[in-house]
Design brief:
Strand 6 and strand 7 form a beta hairpin. The chain contains 7 helices and 10 strands.
Length: 278
């Protein structure tokens, strides 16, 4: 009887242990079994051993952690933020500018990012840095430069200034794009008129240069022809002309086509073809 009671006691203890384990798994399973999805990484907060683990970044896949610790997951893929802001040009004109940035957390520095800034780093550092840099850079340029000639340079300067700030905040900036610039209608129309006039002026200058070059070409060609004629005239003496006339007469006489050849006067002796015999 005592042996039976002992067996039942062990069975009850085993069932109780299993029940406790099941309860623990149900209650804390979501905290213990962590799956980090593709394009994400994790940092762990150790409740009883120093807070955020600064040495380890957890990669994609399945992880088992103690239930009293916490895994914080960050998206490590490139993300985009678009901001529309009103900025002032160098002459104080208000301009609406649509700027976007491509960014991602620096994966190796995610523990520091979480300790110093947190998961809301977009609102805390990325957006303020982008806005501050855009206002600073655009404020150095005129509306015309912003609207037309200097957009690429402005875009690059905003990128460099924003990146310099975010590098110290454990965030990697990949690109800054100026998607649109909106000026007051009157200013925009004035700039477009000016650009059109400049384009017409450049076109007129091109045509003028083309006409000048063509005139120069014709002058050189005419001078060349004139020099050639002078050389020919200088070489055509009476004796040469007479010799050429005799050669032509001989060739005509040797032709199979019958014709009448009249020798010119004794002064030059050049042949004159009057017609054939038919």
């Amino acid at each position: 009887m005592a042996e039976y009671v002992e067996v039942n006691k062990k069975r009850v203890i085993s069932i109780a242990v299993i029940a406790v384990l099941v309860i623990i798994l149900i209650a804390f399973g979501s905290r213990m079994f962590i799956t980090i999805q593709a394009g994400h990484g994790g940092v762990i907060f150790r409740t009883f051993s120093g807070g955020v683990d600064q040495e380890k970044v957890f990669s994609e896949g399945f992880h088992l952690i103690a239930p009293w610790n916490k895994m914080i997951v960050y998206e490590t893929r490139q993300q985009e933020i678009a901001e529309t802001m009103n900025v002032l040009s160098s002459n104080g004109l208000e301009i609406a500018c649509d700027v976007s940035a491509w960014y991602e957390p620096n994966k190796s520095d995610m523990p520091m990012l979480h300790s110093n800034i947190g998961t809301d780093y977009l609102r805390r550092v990325v957006i303020p840095s982008l806005r501050s840099s855009a206002r600073s850079v655009i404020g150095r340029y005129t509306p015309e430069q912003i609207y037309s000639t200097k957009r690429d340079a402005i875009q690059e300067e905003i990128f460099e200034e924003t990146k310099k700030i975010l590098d110290d905040k454990y965030v990697q900036l990949n690109r800054v794009l100026i998607r649109s610039v909106t000026l007051p209608t009157a200013i925009k129309d004035a700039i477009e008129r000016k650009l059109k006039q400049e384009q017409e002026s450049l076109e007129y200058e091109f045509r003028l240069q083309k006409a000048t070059k063509e005139a120069e070409r014709q002058r050189i060609e005419a001078e060349g022809k004139a020099r050639a004629n002078d050389i020919i005239n200088a070489s055509l003496t009476n004796n040469i002309l007479r010799e050429k006339g005799i050669e032509a007469t001989v060739k005509l006489s040797e032709s199979n086509n019958s014709k009448v050849v009249v020798i010119g006067n004794s002064k030059d002796g050049l042949p004159l073809i009057l017609g054939d015999s038919k």
